[in-house]
Amino acid sequence: LAKTTQPISMDSYEGQEVNITCSHNNIATNDYITWYQQFPSQGPRFIIQGYKTKVTNEVASLFIPADRKSSTLSLPRVSLSDTAVYYCLVGGNAGNNRKLIWGLGTSLAVNP
Amino acid sequence: NAGVTQTPKFQVLKTGQSMTLQCAQDMNHEYMSWYRQDPGMGLRLIHYSVGAGITDQGEVPNGYNVSRSTTEDFPLRLLSAAPSQTSVYFCASSSPGEGRIEQFFGPGTRLTVL
Predict the structure, then answer these.
(1) Regarding beta strands A70-75 and A61-64, do their DSSP bridges make them parallel or antiparallel, or are they unpaired?
(2) Given CB 3.0 to 4.6 Å as the disulfide criterion, which of B23, B29, B63, B100 pairs with B93?
């Protein structure tokens, strides 16, 4: 099972771009990289998922280098409402095994 | 769709009591999981199910039982509550698919064991 390492906390200001990097050195060939967002007193919410190169959706971009040992979640022009904990997960549908390891996440604070 | 629902939202138990946390989903997802979240620990997988009648243990299964008699429901049973089980419990569901691990989470149950 691949473990991930990401910064414990980050600070930013409204309107800035925020990049959160996650290390996953022992990622397996069939593993995908997924990011979740969690607000206080709520369950995590899926943000974005990718396998390699770059993925973009309406809320974020995910950059994955060729060796796939790290990934970067990019949040364009953050607002106060983006203050949350962001989790990076690595895993995939290896047969029936859906065990994923959740780290501590990155607590992002967006300041006015 | 209501998505993933959990009841109750809050619960206080005394040591030794038993109870069942309810989880239901209306998205026809085959995969369902139970997690606990403690301060400074992140989410930890308790039990999971890949379909009705099939369950398996996660990272921290001791003290918990699960069953999956229908696709929609995945209750978590605490057999004899202990203070160490004070936590926030999340239920999640997802569809199988190559690499697709987008899980939908419920709002959580905050459990305190005295």
Answers:
(1) antiparallel
(2) B29
- Amino acid identity for residue A95 in this structure: G
Using the structure block, give the residue that is written with the tokens 């039990």.
B47
Q: Closest Cα of chain B to A25: distance in Å?
A: 18
Q: What share of chain B is helix, strand, coil (3-state, %, to 5)?
A: 5, 50, 45
Within 10 angstroms of residue A23's Cβ, the number of other Cβ atoms is: 13
Residues of B within 8 A of A43 (CB-CB) are 4, 90, 92, 105-108
The rounded distance, in Å, linking the Cα atoms of A85 and A64 is 20
Q: What are the backbone angles phi and psi of residue A39, rounded to the nearest 5°?
A: -95, 155
Predicted confidence at residue A95, as pLDDT, reads: 42
Query: From the list B41, B101, B108, which residue is nearest A98 (CB)?
Result: B101
Residue B52 · residue B70 · CB < 8 Å: yes
Q: What are the structure tokens assigned to A87, written together?
A: 């989790």
